[in-house]
Amino acid sequence: MNPLVSVCLPVYNAERYLPQCLKSIEDQTYRPLELIIIDDSSKDGSFSILSEFAKGKPWVKVSQNQHNLGVSSTFNHAVSLAQGDYIARMDADDIMDPERIAKQASFLQSHPETVIVGGQCHIIDNSGNIIGKKVFPLKHREILDMLFRTVPMQQPTVTINRSLLPQDFLYGNPYFSPAEDYGLFFSAARYGKLANLPDFTHYYREHGTNISLTKPKFTFWRIWRARLDALLHQHYRPSIKSIVIVLAQTLVILLLPEKLIYPLHKFTRGMGK
């Protein structure tokens, strides 16, 4: 029998994109599946959309925070409610490939030493048109080395083998937000291997409210928090190459106007079509 996979979906003001996101989860070929959705006190019609979607679907559980807690705390709450052996992360403005969960669950079953598996990403615009891609390394050593200088996994693509992690593991640390993905990957790597599938499993939506676009300098300094925590508390040791690249990145962040930072990042990462 297949293990239960819990898709954990934090939602905040996502009414425009929620129908596509929810349909992509419902259309997954994998079963058994449960969907844990927590609305983080949205100001738009998100909660109404979620409540309507959940009707007649016992595998879907919807709740709402009384106050806005942020994505990290909301994700932690969702994980605490989840019953699954595996935890699949998802963002409310993105779309899953129909085979995503099936491929990742199969990989985790055949690689029990792997704590997190991700995948490759298409980048889409507001209308769902593909405008680029994100390509990530496949193997643990490459991912771990890359982690110090740039994100080597797309957080909403990942599925986590929670059996390898302590019961009190902090899946999302608000101290690093909006770079909580770095904290997750640094911490989880102490308990198992990281991997990415070669398959494009996810459609990542790029729009005007992505914080990596609107506040790249703020995001960068929060990434530095996660890096320092990894050096001081996670026994992480970066390569000389990674140290040199991060120092160069820091100089660029200090010197460049904010509006030029993300376009430069996209160019250097080869994120075009």
Automatic annotation (TrEMBL):
One Pfam family of this chain: Glycos_transf_2
Record domain Glycosyltransferase 2-like: where: 6-160
Keyword hit for Transferase: yes
Alphabetized InterPro entries for the sequence: Glyco_trans_2-like, Nucleotide-diphossugar_trans
Signal in keyword set: no
GO molecular function terms attached to this record: hexosyltransferase activity
Gene3D superfamilies reported for this sequence: Spore Coat Polysaccharide Biosynthesis Protein SpsA, Chain A
The entry's keywords: Transferase
PANTHER family named among the record's database cross-references: GLYCOSYLTRANSFERASE, UDP-GLCNAC:BETAGAL BETA-1,3-N-ACETYLGLUCOSAMINYLTRANSFERASE-LIKE PROTEIN 1
This protein's name: Glycosyl transferase family 2
Species of provenance: Candidatus Collierbacteria bacterium GW2011_GWA1_44_12
